[in-house]
Amino acid sequence: FKLPSDSFKYLGWCDIEKHDVRGNQLHCPRVREGPSEEELFFRGEEHTLKKRKQVTDTEKWQKKLQENWENCAELNLSFQDLGDLYQMENFKRILQRLIRVEKLWLMDNSLTDLSAIRLPRCRELNVNKNHFTSFKQLPKIPQIQHLSLAENNIMTLSGISDFRHSPLESLILKRNPCEFQERYRQLVFSSLPNLKMLDGIPKLPEDCSPPDIRVFFKVCTIL
C-alpha cells in the first residue's frame, strides 16, 4: 500500500504550495529533485508524469529566491541518501550557492570529490563517513577552523599542506588509513603550524619535538 506521502516523493519543500518558508530557515532540508522523464520511463513510473506541470521562467526565478541558499549561515545536509545521479547533481548545485555558510554538515552522503566547490566563509565543516581518499578532493575552504574527516578513506597525508596558511585549529582524522602512518601526529603538526588539536587531543610537546630528539628517546641503553 502506498503511504500518504508517496505523491510527494519527488517534490522538494519549495514545490509545496501555500507556505513561505525559505531555505535559510531550514536546518536539515532534503535537497533532491525528481528524476527526468526519461529516467521515470525506465523506472516504470511514467504515470507520475501527468502530475507535473510546465514551469515558467517566472516560477523558476521565484523558486530560486525561495531556496535562498546564498543566505544560509548554518546548514545540515547529512544523510541525503544520494543514490541517483540527478540527486548528486542537485546536491552540488546547492553547495555552489552556499557563499555565506559558516557551519556545514555533510555526513554520510557517499561523497567522493567536492574539489569544484568553494565555500568562502565556511569555518566548520563535517564530512564524516564519506568516501574521500585525498585532501585534494575537499572543497575550497580558505577560512576553515574546524574540519572533521573521520571514517573516510584518506590513505596518506599528501595534500594536507594546502591548509598550512588557513586558520585551521582543530582536525579530526580518526578511522582513516593515514592514522596508522609512522609519526602520524608529528607529521600533521609539522604541516599545520596553526593546528591546536588533532583527533580530539591537544598539541603535546612530543608532537613538535625535533627529529633528532625523537630518535634519541627511541634508543635503548643496556648497562
Automatic annotation (TrEMBL):
<dbReference type="InterPro" id="IPR032675">
    <property type="entry name" value="LRR_dom_sf"/>
</dbReference>
<keyword id="KW-0433">Leucine-rich repeat</keyword>
<protein>
    <submittedName>
        <fullName>Protein tilB</fullName>
    </submittedName>
</protein>
<keyword id="KW-0677">Repeat</keyword>
